[in-house]
Specification:
This protein folds into two domains: about 240 residues, Alpha/Beta hydrolase fold, catalytic domain (Rossmann fold), CATH 3.40.50; about 60 residues, no CATH class. About 40% of the residues lie in helices and about 20% in strands. An eight-stranded mixed sheet has the order 1-2-4-3-5-6-9-10, with helices on both faces. The chain has a two-stranded antiparallel ribbon with strand order 7-8. Helix 4 packs across helix 9 and helix 5 packs antiparallel against helix 6. It is globular and about 65 Å long.
């Protein structure tokens, strides 16, 4: 492959550096994917600790003949100025740039414009159906470790799991903090938009409006509204950030009558689709410090699915 440095959104207030990985060989047009980050600030490789999931995907998929576009997340570059915006939503944080990425690929003469897919990881997977509906217009959607639930439900579950891992004294102290956060989340839908923009939820800067707006645009509604759009839903069975029972299986239940959905569950992989080491959320930081790469079977399955759904009738 060849890695080409690009700039996404050159005519916007938030230009972002990125890399377009183009496969070597093949005189025809390439299918392509846009990679969309999970929660929090993240660079173009989605680096956390000593792992780089997006770099792994770019190298693995381009080696199989698929072009890959990845870029720095807006909050990674402009986080300091964006945190002052109390009306911040996932649209400004993530969606707008993913749509720009799709448009960028459509202007490249080496890319088959009818075969551009989106791969959303974690919260990016939760947002992928919305990104598609609001302007991405992708040929298909790949959800890696996503969830059909609301973001605040997942956060509460993660906090509960952390509580259970603490000793009795720390649990007693933390339980009050978790209960207070849960109470704030439960009240979100009762707030007006303006009230939500003035109500801190996590820290001083992240407001209730962020969660309220996202909760009003849940992924499952977009998936149900486009029943013939090809979708690949993937998860590691040892994922400690989303749940097989509450997330992966919930997708299956909610989408049971929708055709053209493929499900892939990987027995010993974690949230980053790498081998599980500790398997506990309280040791997430330690787990991601171990240098690993995305499991090759995951790369193979994505490539096979992309080519299957790129076939010309």
């Amino acid at each position: 492959m060849t890695d080409e440095k690009i700039v996404l959104g050159t005519n916007t207030n938030y230009p972002l550096n990125g890399i377009l990985s183009i496969p070597v060989g093949n005189n025809g047009l390439f299918p392509a994917v846009v990679l969309v980050h999970g929660s929090g600030p993240s660079n173009k490789d989605e680096k956390i600790g000593n792992i780089t999931p997006f770099k792994d995907l770019a190298e693995g998929l381009s080696d199989k003949g698929i072009a890959v576009l990845r870029y720095d997340k807006r909050t990674f570059i402009y986080g300091k100025q964006m945190k002052k915006d109390h009306g911040l939503t996932v649209r400004e944080e993530t969606i707008e740039d993913a749509i720009l990425a799709a448009d960028f690929l459509r202007k490249d003469t080496r890319i088959d414009h009818g075969k551009i897919f989106i791969i959303g990881h974690s919260m990016g997977g939760m947002l992928a159906p919305r990104i598609n509906a609001e302007g991405g217009n992708f040929a298909g959607i790949i959800i890696m470790a996503g969830s059909p639930r609301r973001l605040e439900e997942i956060i509460v579950d993660q906090n509960d799991e952390l509580l259970n891992s603490l000793n009795w004294l720390l649990r007693l102290i933390a339980k009050k903090q978790v209960a207070k956060l849960s109470s704030k989340f439960q009240n979100i839908d009762h707030l007006t938009a303006e009230e939500a923009k003035t109500t801190p939820i996590l820290g001083k800067n992240l407001r209730a409006y962020y969660f309220k707006e996202m909760g009003e645009h849940q992924a499952i509604h977009y998936l149900l509204s486009e029943p013939h759009k090809p979708v690949l839903i993937m998860q590691g069975a040892k994922d400690f950030q989303v749940s097989v029972e509450k997330d992966f299986n919930l997708y299956k239940a909610l989408l049971r009558e929708i055709p053209n959905i493929t499900y892939k569950l990987y027995p010993n992989l974690n949230h980053a689709f790498m081998s599980s080491v500790y398997g506990k959320i309280m040791k997430a930081k330690k787990e991601y410090k171990i240098a690993q790469k995305i499991d090759q079977q995951v790369i193979n399955d994505i490539a096979e699915w992309v080519f299957l759904n790129s076939a010309t009738d």
